[in-house]
Design brief:
This protein has 75 residues and is an alpha+beta fold. Helix content is 45%, strand content 20%. The protein contains three helices and three strands. Strands 2-1-3 form a three-stranded antiparallel sheet. β1 and β2 (14-18) form a beta hairpin. The radius of gyration is 13 Å and the shape is globular.
Length: 75
Amino acid sequence: MYVLAFASNSENLLDVIPSWNLMQRAYPKKNIKIIGLAKGYDDALELVRIIVDETYQNTGSVDVWSYLREERRSV
């Protein structure tokens, strides 16, 4: 399993984290904003592609954070 989360640094759009990393005591779990789950790495990359593509199609940018925050408000 892989967890998709908002990027932990400004250089990336999203983080793709193997779920076993989250079980390690030393892994920094604070402030992780999970936006998706995938059953394998290829599926995780496909989900990232879908999210970024949808963001771009609806906003003309790849600002995933703002787009998903707006979508959540409209639900």
